[in-house]
Amino acid sequence: MNLDFSPVWADWRSLLNGALVTVEVTAMALLLGCFIGLLVGLGRLNRDRRLVYGLCTVYVTFIRGTPLLVQLFIWFFGLPQFGLLLPAMVCGVLGLGLYAGAYVSEIVRGAISSIHHGQHEAAIALGLSPWQSMRKVILPQALVRMIPPLGNEFIALIKNSALVSLLTIHDLMHEGQKIISVSYRSLEVYLVVALIYLALTSATAAVLAAYEKKLQRT
C-alpha cells in the first residue's frame, strides 16, 4: 500500500487552524479546571464543613465516575431539553474544564496533605491567619509537588480535547475528518494529526519540566 500525503499538504492551513482551535479550547479548559480544582481541593481538606465537603465529594465522584464523552453530550444535547442552548465552544470548554477540575482537585488535595502539619502551626504561631498560612507557606511548597501530576493531567486534557470535534467544534480532529471525507486517505490524515498532537503534548511537557526546575531552584 502506498501512502499519499498530498491531500494533507494541500489542506495544511485547515489543520493549522484546527490545531489553533485545539490550543484555544485546551487553554481555556485548563484555566477553568485549575480554578475549580483549587477550590474543590481545598473544600475536600476540611471535613468539619460537611456541606462544602459533601458537595465537593459528589462533584468529584460524578465527574471521575462517568465518561467524558457522556458529560460533553449532556452539555451539548441535554441542556437544550431544558431550554438552555449553549454554543458548542462553551459546551466544550465547560465539559473539559469540569472534567479536568475533578482530577486537579485530587492533585491539589494530595499535595497540600503531604505538607507537614508543623508548617501550618509554625505559620499560625508567627501571627499569620489560616488563609495567609495557606497562601504564603503551604501552597508554595505544595505547588512544587503538584507539577508532575499536573503535567500528566494537562497532557491528558490536550488528548481528550479531540472529543470536542463531536460537538461540531472545528478543532484539529474535526478538520482532519473533513479532509478524510473528501480524500478518503484516513491513514495519512490520522498519522499527521497524531504527530501534531504529539508536538503539542511534547511542548507542554517541556514547558512544565522547565517550570518545575525553576521552582526547585527558588
UniProtKB/TrEMBL annotation:
Source organism of the structure: Jezberella montanilacus
Keyword Transport: yes
KW Transmembrane (keyword) present: yes
Single biological process term from Gene Ontology: amino acid transport
NCBIfam families: HEQRo_perm_3TM
GO cellular component: ATP-binding cassette (ABC) transporter complex
Family classification: Belongs to the binding-protein-dependent transport system permease family. HisMQ subfamily.
Protein name per its UniProtKB record: Putative glutamine transport system permease protein GlnP
GO molecular function: transmembrane transporter activity
Major subcellular site: membrane
Pfam families the UniProt entry points to: BPD_transp_1 (PF00528)
Biological role stated in the UniProt entry: Part of the binding-protein-dependent transport system for glutamine; probably responsible for the translocation of the substrate across the membrane.
Record field: transmembrane: 20-40, 52-78, 84-104, 189-211
Keywords: Amino-acid transport, Cell membrane, Membrane, Transmembrane, Transmembrane helix, Transport
Intracellular or extracellular location(s): Cell inner membrane; Cell membrane
Ranges where the ABC transmembrane type-1 domain occurs: 19-208
Superkingdom of the source species: Bacteria
Membrane topology designation: Multi-pass membrane protein
